Amino acid sequence: MPRSMFHPHPLGVRIKRAIAIVLTAALLLVGNLPFGAQALAANHVSRPTLAAATQLPQPDPKFTGKVGDTYKDSTPSYPEPVEAPAEAPNVLVILLDDVGFGMTSTFGGPVPTPNLDKLASNGLSYTRFHTTALCSPTRAALLTGRNHHSVGTGVIIEMGTGYPGYTGIIPKSTALVSETLKDNGYATAMFGKWHNTPEPAISPAGPFDRWPTGLGFDYFYGFNQGETHQYYPTLYRNTVPVDPPKTPEQGYHFTEDMTDEAIAWTRNVRAADPEKPWFVYFSTGAVHAPHHVPPEWREKFKGQFDQGWDQQRQLTYAKQLDMGILPTGTELTPRPAEIPAWDTVPDDAKTVYLRLMENYAGFMAHTDYHVGRLIDSLEKSGELDNTLIFYIIGDNGASAEGGLEGTFSEVASLLGIQLGLESTIDRLDEIGGPPANPMCPWAGPGPWIPPSSGLSRWPATLAAPATPWWCTGQRAFRPRAKFAPSFTM
Questions:
Q1: Omega before 290 cis (within 30°)?
Q2: 8-state DSSP, 488
Q3: CB contact at 8 A, 89 and 277
Q4: Confidence of residue 335 (pLDDT cuts 50, 70, 90)
Q5: How many domains are there within the chain?
């Protein structure tokens, strides 16, 4: 059977029809091209229609008791809380940031991602995920199941304007999957990067109606903007600013912190209510810039990219063909003129590029490790077999924010200032640590430059995909779409 076909595979989890409909609506952006993996079961169990399916939030219950002259001739009727269907699964959506197609080992890339590998080997993997090439719009579409313009998020929230579709304000007429599940009896929580609150509302004064806690999440621990310092993050717990629990010198890193919080929250929910299902939106700041990672993770990759970007493109391309990820006959696009051949790059520049790449790879591996901690905690607690997991490898794909040479300060790049090699060559040991805000160079692109940050030149027809990024390996397929791993169950 061709790899583009859907292969049924029975799972041990019974998924209620109402829940399946909700998830389908929330994940309309996901393509349907499974490769080399078992498919999701189609044996959903039919259940009676829920009241929540016709009206959400459900109306206040009517009093069905009796009020007499005294308590002796009165009958109470206490309003019962909404309960999810029996055996309704937990739902975990894991969303990484700015990861391209040719990066993870699961999809033929050079960075080992064993936890993603494990999920892929026991579930369903896809090789096409439609994105908007920008963070906020993709996330708004993912959470609402609607076109990003129809939910006011045609641009990132920092660029919101006074025109329809571009305000950065999700309208009140739109329900997020978090609201739908909460109104059907789920506990809900969001950890990590949000990036869907209008910029003027991001302050301790609010308003908070479009923060996560105003859009269906019972609990929020993370940051609101598009990025944050991984060692000194701007953090909120619900709507209250909080400091990180320890310092970088004490070993603090935000990815580890948000994982600890998610593990604690799921355990607390289960301890308080053994039957209540939960929905967790676990959205890492990684691997968006700044590329911050503990040195021991960066050092794991020392020397592993010395072959340079030309050869790495060939290696990834060959691996993806061998795995069946790329269709037979797919040709690798030529390296564009903007990117020099690796053999012509000066030694000082090679030193910088290699360190930035090793650092980026360490950041990716570090992220997958902590995702694995969350998955392992569910297995140890007995929750894993009743948890539907979506592991989405990148909201956009590759980022162009590092420029042609990479940068020691991605913030400078955002301001239009390219600091060049001289900003990095004498500070190599600081890359990945608190003083730096590093970002890789983009190199080895396919037939357009570059594929995200709103700078894309998308082909109007089908294009032979390439492995275009040194750091992230993104490739495009058609306008506002990319060949990239979308989710693994």
A1: yes
A2: B
A3: yes
A4: confident
A5: 1
Six-digit token string for 462: 């089908």
SS3 of residue 190 by DSSP: strand
Tell me the β-bridge partners of 187. Answer: 278
pTM of the model: 0.83
Residues listed for the chain: 489
Would strands 240-242 and 235-237 be described as parallel, antiparallel, or unpaired? antiparallel
Q: Is residue 457 part of a domain?
A: no
The rounded percent of the chain whose pLDDT value lies above 70 is 79
Q: Residue 143: inside a domain, yes or no?
A: yes
Residue that has been written with the tokens 């990095």 in this structure: 424
Does 199 map to a domain?
Answer: yes
Prior bond to 164 cis, omega within 30? no
pLDDT of residue 46 exceeding 80, the answer is no
| pLDDT class of 401 with cuts at 50, 70, 90 | confident
Q: Is residue 58 part of a domain?
A: no
Other residues' Cβ atoms within 10 Å of the Cβ of residue 10: 11
The domain in which residue 336 lies consists of 17-48+83-430
Determine the 3-state secondary structure of 419 from DSSP: coil
pLDDT tens digits along 312-324: 989 999 999 999 9
Instruction: Please give the single-letter amino acid code of residue 426.
Output: D
Q: Answer yes or no: is pLDDT of 36 > 50.
A: no
Q: Determine the pLDDT at residue 99.
A: 87
CATH of the domain at 135: 3.40.720.10
Closest CA to 283 of 264, 297, 266, 262: 262
H or E element at residue 359:
helix 347-380
In contact, 226 and 136? CB cutoff 8 Å: yes
